[in-house]
Specification:
Length: 415
Amino acid sequence: GAASFTEAAASGSALTDLSRTIAGLVPGNMYEIQVKARGLPAPGEVCLKGLCSPLSLPSEYGLAASGTILYGSVPVWVNTSSPPDVNPPQLFKLFVGTLFEYTARALGIDAGQNITISATGLTDCGARLVDIEVGNPAAATLRFDPDLRDMDKTFYVCFTATDSLGAFSPPRCLRLLVAAPAPMFVSPSPAQQFVATIGCPITVDFTAQDETTAVIPATEASQRGYRLSIGFVSSSAISAYGTVTSFTLPQGSVFSGMDDAFTNPQTRRLTWTPIRGQEAFAYSFCVSVKDSLKVLNTASGELGGIFCVSMTVKRCSYCLRRGDSLHSVAIEWGTNWLDLWAGNSHILNPSIPLSGTPVELGPILMTSVHDSLSGIAVRNGVSSEQILAWNPDLALAVAREGDVQLQQDKEVCVL
């Protein structure tokens, strides 16, 4: 065989590699190699067939440095069924409730050796080695069943193959990422503004999905047990003069599907036909999403952990229903049917207009600095009670406070 060692050059400014040929070495035996140098040699190592051992430095001048080394070959990995030699280690995406198994295999080149495979990093994640086969070749299977405590963590498990003489292979490692739920809404956009009209149905689809922190398709995540459920939280009627929050759906609205029904992805549809009295408010519809592993209960950190969309119901506007005529609408809203017809030139027949046709009921005024409810009523030849009937946001303020202080540059419907 061949032995090599490193010593300091005479000047001390460089290292020198020296090789010597040694005959008669027997594979599988341990050999002590001694190196003598001028002065105390620098730290180095001695190598035989790729197996290296550090040189122990002598304590006195003139003595030899020595290293004990096995003459043989380290176990090698079976590449087709062992972790690849890459850095960082190969990544495996794991899932709560799904058993992960990985079998590593190694063999010894020298005859008569028994190989044993061990692993580090097992206690960190609670994994274990099973089906350990000692021999040549050797095998061992990593078994890991992640639970909720392991979510969103990355574990490193490294295999080592050792023969009966103590020679061991370079380690081969795995990276194990345990996926956590990561639900998110994909529609509608939180910035999207919806506009509704009394009598006209409007629909909004809430769609959420969970690709997990492992970033896999939602359908695959569903197959692995990562599902979600969208649920209604609250609705608020918001105006410049006050807000009313409710934990029930507004009258005239329906939220399709069922709470606690888990799928991935999931879509639930809000269908709403606003009724009179709901105009002039911006409604905030809020929902949340919870995952089937019961880890998260929201897909948005906005607005205190809920996902909301805004839907404004226009004032001074109405959608005709079956059986309506401009005459019947005028009576219901306290105005003149001729004024309605004059302001809606798209309606050709005032007696039998098409169902679903939008009607502008009257002009919308913008308040100025010194406007008051009674002042607007007098200027337009109507009563304060009529203005309150046409503007439910003002009626709410009066009901709460007994009066209303009109804000500047706000809309008021006057028929």
